[in-house]
Structure formats: structure tokens, C-alpha cells
Design brief:
By secondary structure, the chain is of the alpha/beta class. Helices cover 50% and strands 20% of the residues.
Length: 516
């Protein structure tokens, strides 16, 4: 397909020369205009790939024409022709969007080469833009499918647990002899069924936990924790399991170890998974040591932390598996590992729970000598924002970056007569705001201490404006019912990547807009 070029110059001789040269020598389809007004009229009627215009012309000059084209036809390329002594104007044209400039007197061979280069660069840009658009669509589709998968796993796991519990109760009832006497063979098979029911229940629990972690919908109850007490509780609960293999469970926790800030149930689950794995992969007569100490790190993110380590003298992990050990469904090949069973979800869940506390987890291991799993938890002192929010913001921001998609953070504050709103009304407002969000994957969090709702939505600037207007309208409608006191709604928002390019910047701009 021929590229269409519009030549604009007030000198007929130059128009004719360029028209013939660009048509015969370069194969372009060329039209001409003697001034800016005629050029703009032709641009309204026809589609051109490039406009080659003189800078100095009667009436509107080349710079004015360039400005008009950039407004009405931004996809059209422009190249400026200028005489000696007007280099500053040519540079000004480049700043305003011209793709190139040519100096008079004109060299026809140079003109053809330069115009072909400009058009080829635009074609490459268009191809890259199309590719990026296709890639973005593909990533959005993958995210949609991933969300559907997580929702399906969550629903399926939840729905299967109820009938499974009924089956387990029935088996236990028969095993107890309350429904009638059973013989030894029947008891053997019923016990086998009970073990498999327990295994299936554990698999469903793991799938449900993982889907909640991945979707950012895991409920967290943060509080100040005495780490010594939590570790003692978990080691005591696993003592029988360790004793069955003659494994010694020891812990060395300094009395002065500072308190941490976390969800007790989730921290217990982390420790149970790690110590349980250590017991599973440590031969009979082995030893497991749990330690804790203040964590020193040059990085700012993990500076005020405590590290907890679970060390065993078991079979160890091959070096080639260390990088993938926390991946979903990853299992290390080996006879002992296969004999112990497992779904390969335990460490993936453990990693998700640690990251939900703004911590990190890693492993050091030597084959045949044992492994040491270490994770960090934040100190209780000085923690202001809930780690659950920071974890979800980190997770969603990372998804937006990897998926080349938009992410908007909303901070929503409602107050009455200069005072922040009561907890009860804030709870009801949470439901009102949730209905204003567009996608099932959009996340809404409530911060009772600050009396603020935060929302993370997969939308661009235009969609964010629509959501904000909808929230403002619906909240006003709700609060106006039966309330005579004046209500003030403040909404601060910021959108990645349009307004912010980092998590810190995203939160900072949203907070600034909230206070502004």
C-alpha cells in the first residue's frame, strides 16, 4: 500500500519538484497544498500518512499548521522544511511533535531517505503498539481466568467440606460401634476410609487457604504476640508426632525477644507447617531446633523484624530445587518424600502467610545434612498501618506491573460535624461502597482505627472518576436518610501508571488528594 504524503509550500516550483520526485523516485502517493488552510481542508477530506510542510508561509506558518494537525490529526506524521538561519524554529517544531526537519536548499535523495525512515519508524511503533495492546488483552484475559480459577477453587473447596464432614461423622459413628457391632476386617477398612477422608479434608483446606491468599481476601486479625508463648504452644502440639519418630524438638528463644505484630492463628499455621515438614523429612532419632532473634537487614523494608528459624538434620533439599521449593504443587523427587505424600501446597501457603505479615521466607539446605527454613515477622512497636493492607497493596501492584494493567487506589473518609464517623455507620458504609465497585476482583478494606475505607480497583483514570462519582452519590443518598447532621465525604485516589509509578507514590498521591 502506497504511503500518502501531503506537500505544503507557498512556492509552486518547490511543490512541483517534490511531487514529481516523491512520486517517481520513491513511489509515494503525493498531493499538494499551497498554504496551511488548504492543507487542513484536505486533511479533513482525506487520510494522509505524512505532511511535509514549509516553515515560512503567508498566513499560518508551519508551526501553526503543526499545532492544528497535532490537535485534529495526531496520528499524522509531520516533517518541517526550513531555510538557513531558522534552525531555532526547526528545533521548536521538533519540540511540538514534528518527526524531523529538512534544511533548504533541498537534496532530493536525502529527502527521500529521511521521509522513508520517518515512515518506517512510525510503522514499527504502530506494530509495537498493536503488539503491546494484544499482550495487554492477553494478560487481562489470563488475570480473568486466574480470578475465575481462584473463585471456583474457593467455592468448590467450601462446598465439598460439608458433605465430607457428614461422611466422616458417619464413618466415626460406625467405628465407635454405636450403630452395631463390627468385625475386625470392617474396622480395618473403615479406619482406612477415615484416614483418606482426613487427607482429603486437609487437601481442601489447603486449596481454600491458597485461593484466599491469591485473591487477597484472606481475613487477618493482627495483634501483639508473645513469640515465646506461640512457639511453645506449637511445639507442644507437635510433640506426639515427633515422639513417634524419636525426634527431639528443642527451642532456643531469648527471654528478651521483642513482641511481634501478627495474626496468631496464621503464625501458628506457619510454624506448624515448617515444624511438621521438618518432622516429616527427618529420619528417626533426628533433632529439630527452633530459634528466634532480632533480624538485621540493610534493606529498609525488613529492618524492624524478628527472624524465626526451624532447623533439622534431615535429608536436605537438592540445590536445583531451592529456587522452586515455595512454588505451588512443587515436590522434590526422592523416595522418602514420595513415601510421606503431600500436595505440594504447604510451603506455597506458608510463603503467602509470611508475606501477608510483610515478612519474607527463605531456605538454606545441604543434601544429606538437613535444612533451615527462616521467616521474619514485624515488631509490634511502631507498626501503624495494618500489614494486611500493605500485603494486598504489594500483591495488587505487582499484578498490575506484570500484567501491564491499571490500578487505582481509593482512600475514602466520611465524617460528621468535624468528627470521624462511628464504627456502626462505617460498617454499613462498607456495604454501600462495595456495591459501587465494578469488578468482583476489586478489593475493599476497612480500617476501624483510622475510620477509613480503602479500595483497590483495576481501572484507569476515566473508570476511577466514574467510580468516585458513584461512591459520592450513593454514600450521600445513604447518609441523608434520617440524618440531620452535615456529612462530609473525602475521597483521595491515585492511578497506576497514569499518576504514580511506585507503590509509595500511589499511596502518597492518594493520601495527599484525601487531605487536599
Amino acid at each position: 500500500m502506497e504511503n500518502k504524503i501531503l506537500v505544503v509550500d507557498d512556492e509552486k516550483e518547490i511543490r512541483d519538484i517534490l511531487s514529481k520526485a516523491l512520486t517517481r523516485l520513491a513511489g509515494f502517493h503525493v498531493d499538494v497544498a499551497q498554504n496551511a488552510d488548504e492543507a487542513l481542508q484536505k486533511l479533513e477530506r482525506e487520510k494522509f500518512d505524512l505532511v511535509l510542510t514549509d516553515l515560512k508561509m503567508p498566513g499560518k506558518d508551519g508551526l501553526q499548521l503543526l499545532s492544528e494537525i497535532s490537535k485534529s490529526n495526531p496520528d499524522v506524521l509531520t516533517v518541517m522544511m526550513t531555510g538557513h538561519g531558522t534552525i531555532d524554529s526547526a528545533l521548536e517544531a521538533m519540540k511540538k511533535g514534528a518527526s524531523d526537519y529538512l534544511m533548504k536548499p533541498l537534496n532530493l535523495e536525502e529527502i527521500i531517505v529521511r521521509l522513508q525512515k520517518v515512515i518506517e519508524e512510525r510503522q514499527r511503533f504502530v506494530r509495537l503498539k498493536d503488539f503491546a495492546t494484544q499482550l495487554e488483552k492477553a494478560n487481562l484475559e489470563l488475570r480473568r481466568l486466574d480470578t475465575m480459577k481462584s473463585e471456583f477453587v474457593s467455592v468448590a473447596s467450601h462446598e465439598l467440606r460439608t458433605p465430607l464432614a457428614a461422611i466422616k461423622n458417619a464413618v466415626q459413628l460406625v467405628l465407635s460401634g454405636k450403630t452395631g457391632k463390627i468385625n475386625e476386617t470392617q474396622a480395618k477398612f473403615l479406619s482406612m476410609a477415615e484416614r483418606n477422608i482426613n487427607r482429603l479434608t486437609n487437601i481442601l483446606d489447603n486449596l481454600l487457604s491458597l485461593s484466599r491468599i491469591e485473591s487477597g481476601k484472606m481475613e487477618m486479625n493482627f495483634q501483639e504476640l508473645d513469640l515465646r508463648e506461640v512457639i511453645e504452644f506449637v511445639t507442644h502440639s507437635l510433640k506426639l508426632q515427633a515422639d513417634s519418630k524419636s525426634i527431639t524438638l528443642n527451642s532456643e528463644i531469648p527471654e528478651e525477644i521483642p513482641k511481634v505484630y501478627g495474626d496468631r492463628e496464621k503464625v501458628e499455621q506457619i510454624l506448624t507447617n515448617l515444624i511438621g515438614n521438618a518432622i516429616k523429612f527427618t529420619p528417626d532419632g533426628g533433632e529439630i531446633l527452633i530459634t528466634a532473634k532480632p533480624f538485621q537487614d540493610e534493606g529498609k523494608r525488613y529492618r524492624k523484624m524478628v527472624s524465626i528459624s526451624v532447623k533439622d538434620n534431615g535429608i536436605g533439599i537438592p540445590k536445583e530445587h531451592l529456587n522452586e521449593i515455595f512454588d505451588k504443587f512443587h515436590q522434590v523427587e526422592g523416595s522418602l518424600h514420595r513415601s510421606t505424600g503431600g500436595t505440594g501446597l504447604g510451603l506455597a501457603i506458608t510463603k503467602g502467610l509470611v508475606e501477608a505479615h510483610q515478612g519474607k521466607i527463605w531456605v538454606e539446605s545441604e543434601l544429606g545434612k538437613g535444612s533451615t527454613f527462616t521467616f521474619t515477622l514485624p515488631l509490634s512497636e511502631g507498626e501503624r498501618r495494618e500489614p494486611s493492607f500493605r500485603y494486598i497493596l504489594d500483591s495488587e501492584f505487582r499484578r498490575a506491573q506484570e500484567g501491564f494493567s491499571h490500578l487505582t487506589l481509593f482512600l475514602i473518609e466520611v465524617s460528621e460535624q468535624g468528627d470521624r464517623i462511628e464504627d456502626g455507620i462505617l460498617d454499613e458504609l462498607e456495604g454501600v461502597v462495595r456495591k459501587c465497585l465494578c469488578r468482583m476482583s476489586d478489593i475493599l478494606l476497612k480500617h476501624k482505627k483510622e475510620k477509613i475505607l480503602t479500595a483497590l480497583c483495576q481501572t484507569d483514570l476515566r473508570g476511577a472518576q466514574v467510580i468516585q462519582e458513584r461512591i459520592e452519590e450513593e454514600v450521600r443518598k445513604y447518609l441523608s436518610k434520617g440524618l440531620t447532621r452535615p456529612i462530609l465525604i473525602r475521597i483521595g485516589r491515585a492511578t497506576y501508571p497514569d499518576e504514580a509509578l511506585s507503590k509509595r507514590e500511589l499511596f502518597g498521591i492518594a493520601k495527599e488528594n484525601l487531605r487536599g
